[in-house]
Write a structure and sequence with these properties.
The protein has 159 residues and is mainly alpha-helical. It is built from 5 helices and no strands.
């Protein structure tokens, strides 16, 4: 009985590797999709609640909010560019470079803003961590969206 389970497990691993090598996306699990969305919402909402409750000028709050939006758009552009290139979809080097540049600039702007902010170190850490959580989870949400699209197209073509 153990050998049968091992053979089945090895067969599944081989099938998974075959799918990867054939450039077919593997459908993300509902748990991973849900965790990605929860992480994105947690990061964004926490960051925004922190801004709402912060004792800073409205223009400072606007600066940090704009950095969040700028960073989210930038990482989604990076993920899309990388994915498009992997799938053989044309992406210009200029757009690819600008996507990476704006991602790094958004992080740098947050660092500069927090470095010069008159905030407690714990508040600075809170903004940094919720910002990075938001960026990372935006990438995973975009990846899941693309994976589901590829799987849906693949299933339609094979029906």
């Amino acid at each position: 009985m153990e050998t049968t389970q091992m053979e089945t497990s090895e067969t599944n691993v081989l099938k998974t590797r075959k799918n990867i090598f054939e450039n077919k996306a593997i459908k993300p699990t509902n748990a991973f999709i849900g965790a990605s969305w929860i992480a994105l919402l947690t990061g964004m909402i926490s960051y925004c609640i922190g801004l709402w409750n912060a004792q800073m000028e409205l223009n400072e709050k606007g600066y940090y909010f704009a950095i969040l939006l700028f960073g989210l758009f930038s990482v989604i552009s990076v993920q899309k560019s990388v994915r498009d290139r992997i799938e053989g979809i044309a992406v210009t080097d200029m757009y690819y470079g600008i996507s990476w540049f704006t991602t790094l600039v958004s992080i740098l702007l947050l660092i500069i803003g927090l470095w010069n902010a008159d905030l407690l170190l714990s508040e600075k850490g809170f903004y940094a961590m919720s910002f990075l959580l938001s960026l990372f989870s935006a990438i995973t949400v975009q990846k899941n969206t693309r994976d589901l699209l590829v799987v849906t197209k693949f299933e339609k073509n094979n029906d």
